[in-house]
Amino acid sequence: MEPLSPPPTITPSLFHRPELLDNQTRLILSAHVKPKRLIRSTTRSAGISKARTDSSSILTTSFTQESDEDDDDDDEDLSPENIINYDTDIEEDEEPIKDYTCKGLYLDQCHRHSVIPSSFFLRSIDKKTLTIRYCGLKPINIKVMIPSLKINTNITKLDFRDNGLGSHGTIYIAELIRDNEYITELNLADNDIGLQGCKALCEVLRSNRTIRILNLDGNRFNDNCAQFFADVFSENDTIKYINLNKNLFENDKTGRLFGQSLGENQTIEEFYIAWNHLRSKTCALLLKPLMLNARLTILDLSWNGAGLHTAKIILELLKKNSTLEKLRLDNNQFNTECAVYIGQGLAKNETLKILTLNGNPL
């Protein structure tokens, strides 16, 4: 009788041996083996784990060597020679070339201050005369023009009449006059300049050597501005024409300041101060120092309140002055007695060509 063979050994399933999960053994599930049929012994699993550990160490060593080689390559790539010769497809953005012409500067300023450019200004910037009248220019409109006008060598006549620039706009104009040496004629009539604008403008005009013609009528100048203008008359030796019509001058101090400074001035040929509030004594104080003036050819005192006292001074003026050619005395309250004194002066004068006395009760 043959001995019975031992029953086949049945390997317990992993799910029937939970103690196997307590071991820190890495179970590798192959893609083609289902988990239920996976049978691994502890020894075999340990062997595979060791093999994988050795393989990982080999890979780590290999990776370390390759990293060292890459570092060496990087060090070679960062050498000064390679940095200098390094080329890239990324191109740097080139800065736009700035236009420093008069038009370019004006457009740049308009862009900076969000101002709509004036096509008329752009068309006129290369001409001899820049005339912008009755356009209601604001101070900011003048401000954006100043940089281009400072370097402009074409414009010699600047006419901003009746724009209501005010003191702020006039301060910008004064800055322009200080730096520009080509403008010879300036018209700022009817711009409501006021005291602060007058101060800034006169401060520049005292040392200016290019302005020949200056029109400032209708700008609310009062007696507080008189000293500033007197300083200009005394120190400036280039202005030949000055118009201060339609302002608010009236007191005796103004007449005295204007008279003394004009008497010393040897360049002003035409002086207009009509339509102010000058009365008899004030006009007399203004005219008396002009007896010795050797340059004045035209004097306009019309539409003031000269009266009898001034008529007597006119007699002396006409006797001694030898340059005056035109004298306007319209609407000055001259009566018949005043006319007698003026006539006696005319009899002694040889240079006066035009005398107007319209609107007087003669």
From TrEMBL:
Polar residues: compositionally biased ranges: 54-65
Regions of compositional bias (Acidic residues) in chain numbering: 66-79
Domain of life of the source: Eukaryota
Region Disordered, residue ranges: 44-81
Pfam families linked: LRR_6
Protein's name in the database: Uncharacterized protein
Organism: Adineta steineri
Taxonomic lineage from the root: Eukaryota, Metazoa, Spiralia, Gnathifera, Rotifera
